[in-house]
Design goal:
Shape: globular
Largest sheet: 10 strands, mixed
Low-confidence stretches: none
Distance between the termini: 50 Å
Radius of gyration: 21 Å
Order of helices and strands: HEEHEEHEEHEHEEEHEHEHEHEH
Bound molecules: threonylcarbamoyladenylate, magnesium ion
Structural class: alpha/beta
Length: about 325
């Protein structure tokens, strides 16, 4: 069967079968993959990423009919969501099948599963005919890579093979929904929103306080650039910039537009000009839609991280539910500063 696949897929399958690490594109971010039935290969993922063994991995599958080999007591809700969103940027946490190694699950009795929507990821999964365990292909607590070049920057020779594709379309990691408890709950927001999930499930999701995740997988510092990142409301940007001392410059400002009249103190036009024309304040403009913003977020932060800024100041995007995944990542990136 494997003969029908292009050379790069065949090569990647050979590496996976031999217990080696293969990075591959998904629609969200690049994954660092290992054969999900080979404990030694899975161990290599944790070592390459310097990730604690208590942080569970997501297993990627090609077909819905593989689900029963990985999970048990699968609720009808899992099929409702899978039929709507798979292949796509949604991870379901279910009770694990007894045959699943606890190495994958951080010692827990649940497992995260998803079918990714990227054609190369799907071809790889189909050609392997088995699950692929894959976290994002970055070092622990760093930004997830959304290009093949960023994977190499993050992990270099720690990856045995990089299946290179285009930049990832979604740009931030999948929405994670826990279906192993009493009520469905979001463990990690993403571009599939709570409202969309509630519409399909026809019931409200449990809130974070109803549902204490059993795992610390949600590490507070995560997805962070090396440069300290600050997230501030648009209304505070001008005061913040005006009070900067020379030692804090140059600074990058990630905004969706130049400061508006109501965002600046003092005579509006001259104050705005002073901020926008200051050569030590570098403005970078992000898109207006959450889809484009998410698509560009990590690669923009990765680029800014190389430019020697003292800080990256991010003007908070809208607080609309469609932006929940983006806010989550920005807050995590900011928690390092
Ligand atoms: O979009 C994505 O999900 C990407 C691509 C490569 O698929 N993967 C990804 O994996 O973001 P990773 O390992 O970087 O993040 C997986 C998250 C972790 O925060 C982990 O704690 C959580 O999923 N997770 C995995 N299995 C879990 C489980 N059984 N219970 C709770 N959380 C789980
Ligand atoms: Mg990650």
């Amino acid at each position: 069967m494997i003969k029908d696949y292009p050379d790069n897929i065949q090569q990647a399958v050979k590496y996976l079968k031999a217990g080696k690490l293969v990075a591959f594109p998904t629609e969200t971010v690049y994954g660092l993959g290992a054969h999900a039935r080979q404990p030694e290969a899975i161990t290599k993922i944790f070592l390459a990423k310097q990730r604690p063994f208590t942080h569970p991995l997501i297993v990627h599958l090609a077909h819905l009919d593989q689900l029963a080999a990985w999970a048990i007591d699968i609720p009808a809700e899992a099929y409702l969501l899978a039929n709507t969103y798979w292949p796509g940027p949604l991870t379901l946490v279910l009770k694990k099948h007894p045959a699943v190694s606890t190495l994958l699950t951080g010692g827990q009795d649940t497992i995260g599963l998803r079918i990714p929507a990227h054609p190369l990821a799907l071809a790889l999964l189909q050609a392997l005919g088995e699950g692929i365990a894959a976290p994002s292909a970055n070092r622990f607590c760093r930004l997830s890579p959304t290009t093949a070049a960023a994977v190499f920057e993050e992990l270099g020779k720690q990856v045995d093979y990089i299946l290179a594709g285009d930049a990832c379309q979604v740009g931030i990691e999948s929405t994670i929904v826990d279906l192993s408890g009493q009520r469905p709950a979001i463990l990690r927001p993403g571009m599939i929103t709570a409202q969309q999930l509630e519409t399909i499930l026809e019931k409200p999701l449990a809130t974070a306080s109803d549902h204490a995740p059993r795992v610390a997988g949600m590490h507070p510092v995560h997805y962070a650039p090396e440069t300290p990142l600050l997230l501030i409301p648009a209304a505070e940007i001008s005061t913040f910039l005006e009070n900067l001392t020379n030692i804090e410059l140059p600074i990058a400002v990630l905004a969706q537009h130049t400061p508006s009249r109501q965002d600046v103190a003092g005579p509006a036009d001259s104050a705005r000009r002073a901020l926008v024309q200051n050569p030590a304040i570098h403005w970078f403009y992000m898109a207006a839609t959450p889809q484009e913003y998410a698509h560009d977020l990590y690669c923009t932060l990765r680029e800014l991280d190389k430019q020697g800024f003292k800080k990256i100041l991010v003007v908070a995007p809208p607080h609309d539910p469609a932006w929940a995944g983006i806010h989550d990542r920005l807050q995590k990136a900011a928690s390092r500063a």
